[in-house]
Amino acid sequence: MPQAVTGKKIDTLLIIRGLLAIAVVVFHSATMHENTTAFINIPGRTAVWMFFGISGYVIGYGFFTERYQFTKKDLGVFYLNRFLRIYPLFLLLSLLAWITGSLASGQSSLHFKDVLPQLLMFQFNHDYMFSRVFWTLGIEVQFYIIAPLLAAFIMGRFPYKWFLLAGVYFLFVCWVPFAFYLFGQSFDGRNLPANLSHFFIGMLACKLMLEKKLPAINKALLIIIILALLAVTNYLYAHHIDYYWTAGSVTIDFIILLCVLLHKEVSGTTYGSKNYLLRAFSFLGVISYGVYAWHPYFIQYTPQIERKTLILILVSVSAAFLSYQFVEKPVLSLKGKRRKAGFGN
User: Is 312 inside any structural domain?
Assistant: First the structure.
């Protein structure tokens, strides 16, 4: 994925990822205990849906700009790089949680039959014994499998293309209530079909941006609209949950589109080396995966800090920094070395 700053350029979407990771930590700490008001709470699900949208944008960008082409070699590179991005930290934290849980209980919670669903993510409705947030990683990995097909479809040339793409998005949106009424599935869909609309809108937004079909809007106005819509969806989650899973979900897709529009408006903007706040937010985006992945481990195995939100944030960010430096960064450097031999991001 794109780095936080190249030549001190602001990467808005990466900064948003970092802020969303912190929002998830706050939600699992303070919000759970009603320490903040509904309008400013960002539910964990809102952050996850926005993560999915940004992921759709990033993956789409790789194909739409021909960083990856639809060849056997490039697709192999794409899947390898996605594996290097997700699995090292996932496996590290799964191993750590398994050891910690086994020592605490005196017996292993992992059996041979669990390897495929728990470690290789062979699940439909995702549920992981080692971390309550890893269900999102399972969906993310399964999205990677079909992402080239979605990208090829969006890049296709056919009559009334954008009307057709809008129709496909509408079908993805309709799947959740359809699956609820026909199959009895929960609105809290922890599977790929229930979340495809968010990935897809991110890919569509990327394509619209690259084709210069997104309008120019004042950055301050965009931020105000995004925050206002977030406040509305936060309120729906707290007081009208049924509307949150339907209208709220579509609203968040619109927020994803607006975030891409904001990203376009800020693109090319640079900042000085002494702007420590932007540098901190940018690096927070870089380690956002770690912040998101570490915090439930601390909540589960050091429950005394669950209600101490600032401490939970600090230890999660610290652990994410260390795992980025000593696990993620060394592994991700393989992508850079391979890129010189034809491997891409």
Answer: yes
In a domain, 6, yes or no: no
- Which residue is listed with tokens 């429950």? 303
Q: Are 143 and 55 in contact (CB under 8 A)?
A: yes
pTM, two decimals, is: 0.93
CA distances from 299 to 42, 103, 104, 221 (A): 19, 17, 15, 37
| Dist CA 5 CA 20 (whole Å) | 18
For residue range 116-132, what is the model confidence (pLDDT) as tens digits? 999 999 999 999 999 99
State phi, psi for 288 to the nearest 5 degrees: -60, -35
For residue 260, tell me if it sits in a domain: yes
4 is a domain residue: no
Report the C-alpha gap between 44 and 236 in whole angstroms: 13
Collapsing DSSP states into helix, strand and coil, what is residue 9?
strand
Q: How many domains does the chain have?
A: 1
